[in-house]
Design brief:
single chain; mainly alpha; about 80% helix; about 0% strand
């Protein structure tokens, strides 16, 4: 899926990720890619629905949590985004990635 997406073959990539989920309903990576695609296409609500499933399958998945943080911000759900960021920072206080997310959140919120 990722290779297809990088080639600009988005529809084919999405079809591949959906098929992967069908074949393995507990698969996390294709769900994260589907959520990322939804977010990149301006469909934050859809991305959050997908990420809810990811959080049930793999609650501590770092990539899923980080994408959830970005998606909450994109959806304007600042209180939830801030709460998640606080939780992630408590687990990873020296994370440069979280520092960047905090700075981006601060800029978007203004």
């Amino acid at each position: 899926g990722r290779a297809l997406a990088r080639q600009g073959r988005t529809k084919e990539a999405i079809d591949e990720w959906r098929e992967a989920v069908k074949l393995n309903p507990k698969a996390v990576e294709p769900r994260i890619e589907l959520a990322r695609q939804a977010l990149d296409s301006g469909r934050a609500a859809e991305a959050l629905q997908i990420l809810e499933t990811v959080s049930r399958i793999a609650p501590g998945d770092p990539e899923g949590l980080l994408l959830r943080l970005r998606t909450l911000g994109a959806a304007g759900r600042w209180d939830e985004a801030k709460a998640l960021l606080r939780d992630l920072r408590a687990r990873n206080p020296k994370s440069a990635t979280l520092d960047l997310e905090q700075a981006q959140m601060d800029l978007r919120e203004k």
